[in-house]
Amino acid sequence: MAGTAPMNLFDVAGRAMSSQLVRMNTAASNLANAGVVSATEQDAYRPLKAVFAEQVDKANGLSTVKVSGVYRSSATPIREHSPGHPLADANGDVWAAPVDENAEMVEMLDSSRQYQNLVETLSTAKQLMLDTIRMK
C-alpha cells in the first residue's frame, strides 16, 4: 500500500463488504449449479470458493480482508446411473455437480449477515460523525 493514503473505517468496511459480496456470489453460483449433470466427469460443474487474505495498513495498523482469489473445488463429481438421460454415456451414467446445498446455504446466510453487520457499522459511524459535527 505504499504511496496511498492510510485506510480509514470506511475503507476497511468497504473492502470487507466487497469480499462478502464475492462470497455470496460464489455460493449463489454453486446453488444455481447444484443438480446440474454432464456427460463426462471432466465437464461436470465444480463448486467455487472465495479465499480471503488479510490486508494490513502499516501506516495506522488497521486491517481488513481482500479476496485473494476464487478457486474451483477439486471435489469429484458424483456418478449417477441414469440410462434414460440424454447425456448418459455408454454405461448409462451422468456426472452430477458435487455441491453441498446445505453448506452453500449456510455460506450464503453467513456472508449476508456479515455484510449486514458492516452496513450497520458504517451507519453508526456516520451517525456519530454527524452528531459530533452538530455539537460544534
UniProtKB/TrEMBL annotation:
InterPro entries from the UniProt entry: Flag_bb_rod_N, Flg_bb/hook_C_dom, FlgC
GO cellular component terms given for this protein: bacterial-type flagellum basal body, rod
Boundaries of every Flagellar basal body rod protein N-terminal domain copy = 11-34
Which processes are annotated in GO (biological process)? bacterial-type flagellum-dependent cell motility
Keywords carried by this UniProt record: Bacterial flagellum, Cell projection, Cilium, Flagellum
In which family does this protein belong, per the annotation?
Belongs to the flagella basal body rod proteins family.
How is this protein named in the record? Flagellar basal-body rod protein FlgC
Q: Which organism is it from?
A: Novosphingobium umbonatum
